[in-house]
Amino acid sequence: MKTSHVYTAKALGVAFVFAAALGLSQPATAGQNDGVTHDIKTAGHDVKKDTAKAAHATAKDSKKAAHATVKDTKKVARATDKDTKKAAHATAHDTKKAWDKTKDTTEGAFHGAKKGAEQKAN
Fold it and tell me: For a Cys staple, 32 with which of 2, 28, 52, 60, CB 3.0–4.6 Å?
């Protein structure tokens, strides 16, 4: 039984503390509400203004980045085209050179074999 009296006393103490706290609080006056409302509106306008600035800056920077990307892409495409033509020309030149060497070597081998065969036949 002693335990239930202790809980009852604690509950009563807590109730008195909260009752006192609730009794001391006062509702805000009309003048205080107007100030809070004004502050909230001001904050809302500031947020709206800052959001618009941020959106404008983002759009401007996006356009700038897109323009730079197009410019750089064209530059890379021209360089690639130039280098591809240069590589194709070098390949064609080296292919012709290899063909000529192969042809000369083949003709030389043919004539050498023919001459060797004629000498054996004589």
Answer: 28
Could you read off the pLDDT of 22-75 as tens digits, one per residue?
A: 555 555 555 566 778 888 889 889 999 999 999 999 999 999 999 999 999 999
DSSP string, the chain: -HHHHHHHHHHHHHHHHHHHHHHH--PPPHHHHHHHHHHHHHHHHHHHHHHHHHHHHHHHHHHHHHHHHHHHHHHHHHHHHHHHHHHHHHHHHHHHHHHHHHHHHHHHHHHHHHHHHHHHH-
Give the residue from 10, 30, 6, 7 showing the smallest Cα distance to 18. Answer: 10
